[in-house]
Amino acid sequence: MTRKDYEFIIASVGAFVTVIAAGFFSDLILLNNSGTPIIIASTGASAMVVLGLPDSPVSRPWNLVGGHTFSAIVGVSCYQFIPNELLAASLSIPFSMIAMYFGRCMHPPGGATAITAVIGGVAINELGYMFVITPIFFNSLILLTVALGVATFRKKNPFI
Fold it and tell me: Using an 8 Å Cβ cutoff, are 139 and 56 in contact?
């Protein structure tokens, strides 16, 4: 196996750690009693982008955190102010793109965050703007922490 193969395996383990930690802490913070873990699909998409393509411009820390945060704000706003769910979900994407563009934090999985805020179901909708903080902002920070750890391991480990 090459060094690149080992790096990819490490990144894959990092993706697992990210999703399980994000789900665990989201459930813990939100005191989820439904028995169904709160795992936001965009967290998985971001893990693939940030850990699998670490040199991509969309994988930068500000893009990750800012992109999800802006998209969550836009998605919740669309849900709150646009009574038609299909229209709200459809508008959440271009409005998120605009917010990320002007915030200089384009992160494609942010589109999934925006749509989740609209069509994520009762548990998500009841959170309102709290959805921006938890689970989205906290999940972004968890992913960023894991990604920085993986990046440090990749660059400094002489054994791979």
Answer: no
Please tell me what DSSP assigns to residue 138.
Answer: H
The pair of structure tokens assigned to 85 is: 């769910």
Under a CB-based contact definition with an 8 Å cutoff, are residues 56 and 49 in contact?
yes
From the list 49, 25, 27, the residue with the least C-alpha distance to 112 is 49
* pTM (predicted TM-score): 0.91
* Closest to 37 measured CA to CA, from 132, 155, 139: 139
List the structure tokens of 136: 């989205």
22 SS3 class: helix
Average pLDDT for the chain: 91
Q: In this structure, are residues 114 and 92 in contact, taking their beta carbons and an 8 Å threshold?
A: yes
Distance separating alpha carbons of residues 146 and 140, to the nearest angstrom: 10
Amino acid at 152: T
Give me the pLDDT at residue 37, please: 64
